[in-house]
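Recap quiz, item 2
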Amino acid sequence: MKFITSFILMALLSFSLCIFLPWWSIAIACFLVAFCIPQKNWVSFVAGFVSLFLLWYALSFWMSFQNGHLLANRISTLILKQENSFLLVLITALIGGFVGGFAALSGSLIRKNFKHA
Amino acid sequence: MRILFSILSFFFTAALCYVLDTKSVFKLPFGKFLSPQAGIWQNAESFDADFSDELKFDQLIGHTNVYLDERLVPHVFAENETDAFFVQGYLHAKFRLWQMEFQTMYAAGRASEVVGDVALNHDREFRRLGLVYAAEKSLVEMENDPISKSACDAYTAGVNQYIASLTYSDLPLEYKLLGYQPEKWTNFKSALFLKYMAYDLTGNDKDFEMTDAKASFTKSDFDLLFPSKQDSLDPIIPKNTFFSLATIQPVTPAFADSIYFDFLKDTIAIPQVEMPDQFNGSNNWAVDSSKTKSKYPILCSDPHLKISNPSVWYEMQISTPNSNVYGASFPGAPGIIIGFNDNCAFGFTNAGRDVKDYYEIKFKDNSKSEYWFNNNWVNTTRRIEKINIAGKPAFYDTIAYTIFGPVIYDASFSGKNNKVEKNYAVRWSAHDNSNEFKFFYLLNHAKNYCDFQQALPYLKSPGQNCVFACKNGDIAINVQGAFPAKWKGQGEFVMPGFDSSYMWQGMIPQSENPFQYNPVRGFVSSANQRPVDSAYPYYIGSNYPVYRGLYLNRKLSSMKDITTADMMKLQTSNYNVFAEMAMPILLKNIRVEVLNENERKYFQKLENWRFEYDENTTAATLFELTWSKLTDTIYNDEYASKPKNTARPYKSSLLDALLRDSCYKFIDNITTSNRETLEDVVIAAFKSASLEAVQLEKQNKLSWSKYKDTHVDHLLKLPGFGAEHLKIGGNENCLNATKSSHGPSWRMIVNLTPNTDAYGIYPGGQSGNPGSRFYDDGIETWAKGNYYNLWMMRAEEKNDLRVKWKMVFSKK
């Protein structure tokens, strides 16, 4: 239950913060949620990773889909040297996932320090 | 231990964010760049994107409605002109901001700021050419005129309102890719843009190359290679037109024969960094009511420019109580450039006159503060240009200005190499005061021929052949611009800079520029050919394209009951008069008995060919290959020992020479003991072309469109952002002058019936966003030779099905 809650909160908070703040506010969101909701460190990491992976995957895929993958095909040709919109969406999701995961891990670890102290 | 892990994890996360937010490790800030809520995904415009909007700004006076049609062409209905220009600026920025800014930074010699020191040579050359200096002067002139000042001020305010509304996520894709931000627009940037167009259309000079040719050949050889006469010329103003005597009689300097027309002297070898395409030309024509089916004039115009995306053109309609005009505008400048209003239509081709000359300067010392002029040391003014470079310290360039203009090349900068110890100042007509904004403003408002004539004097540079047609039946063409009155041969070569007698001695008076008004033949036309025959009392040089004009006039003379469909056919015609005239030389000199089987097959194709450069023909490829080999065979031996930049003869000069004289001196290969004949070299060229053709055929690249391979690149040539391998015919000598990345950039046909009936197309799309479906939607249609209907919308048609979105601008 905690996992689901933090997973949903991370995604919601990330999305909301990004409306006003730069993209890296996803790290703040995952950090805060993991800090507030105690879980095992690795569970926090997975929650952050999966949450942001899915959020960024869903958002970028949806925008690309509505665009007929026109832009994604161009950008992937330019930076990945192949016309592969799927790969670009995947890389986007992985970036979100890793930043979210490590931020959540940090939140979880630091919470435990506080508790300890 | 746990504390260490926490700290490590925290800093790792922070470092990850930093790396993904900056270009410190990767070439792109991948986190920022790919984040769905701010990065490039925001530029993935939905197929059903809604462009409707309601906007309120303090500067606006009244209420403006903008109806966007199914091609995203805006139809602007403003209550006054200031608002109209504000909205035009806003729309240009909304759809083309990156391009507008990039092009003006390029013009200002500021490309290094964006792309780094790869552009430093470009930036230095542009600043030394005085493009910024020219724009500064033009800005003063434009701001002194209340009409053009008010138009530009409103336009600039519109652009800036759009820029002010942008957040990172709204930025055009290219800013995200290159990692910079748009800066504020200014009137100066608009002036820069027009000066860039002046550069593009007057910049293709051959002065250095011709000076090297003069230094490399004897006078008689030079005259054979570069004849001053074009045998097949059909000028813009028909032959045998009467011209009155010149009011300015330029005087050839004393001793010019030994000082200036000195053959076999020093070469120069300045390789210019940049050179506008020599085929920056165009076609335009108008036929009067006697030749049309509708009994109203038809005007056609298609400027040939480098074709890239986003296009240099943005289509729109601007309607105010004072005027209602439709056509192609330049993102970066107010007004419509090529188009029509409720009374008349206008279009341009490049006049191609030489208005850029070079003078050799002798400085007293390395400080470049004094130069020798009329037997005195004269002070230069020096201007220090600071060139900012992305990721590197700024570069400072000191440029000396002489009485002629800026010293473009000297020991510190000699184009692509830094070796030449001589100094050259440039005299360019674009440096002179002018206000081309006013020209377009007046033209947009013109109601009749008289208004057209009043607009013309404001167009000084680039010189254009301006075609005009009016619903009242008038048609006209004016060769318009500020052109120096030159003595014969002046400015063909680099001139001495120590003597005032080599300076331009005056400009040809406006009234002595050639023109034609309602001619008996029922049409006016131009295709960049020499505007007049030798009866014109001023020297105007000889480097002009010949063949498109020949075909155009031939067709226009014979056509009757012309419809817009006929004009479309003509404008997209792939017929090549050069090939028509050159083919007999090939056919006559190739003996079938010396050909092998493949060569015979190719020869047959040539024999059966009707000189059409259609996309699927292979004969056009065979002809082009053969002619290019023939040219090489004839000239390469003579040129082998000459400097690399030495000017080569024009295609028309070789053709004229071979038609006149089958024993043309240069046919003989000077490296062999034999005396080669025309037959020898033609057969050798054909055999060599056939060998190449076999290879091309194996790669399936022998058909003309595959061989030519027309493509429309993104302005930055980004892979994946352009349209490649277009199926389109034509070449530089066809009316459809489409080459590999150059061609008809805006085709327009206007039938001036009471309800204007107009068609147009450009190879691009209305949106500059590569993530929009409107980015390149016109390219296929353009390549096929099809047109869109240009809808001159009336305000009461706001419920028409073609209207898809509505933007409303009003006062806050």
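Chain B has a mean pLDDT of 95.
Chain B has 23 helices and 29 strands.
End of item.
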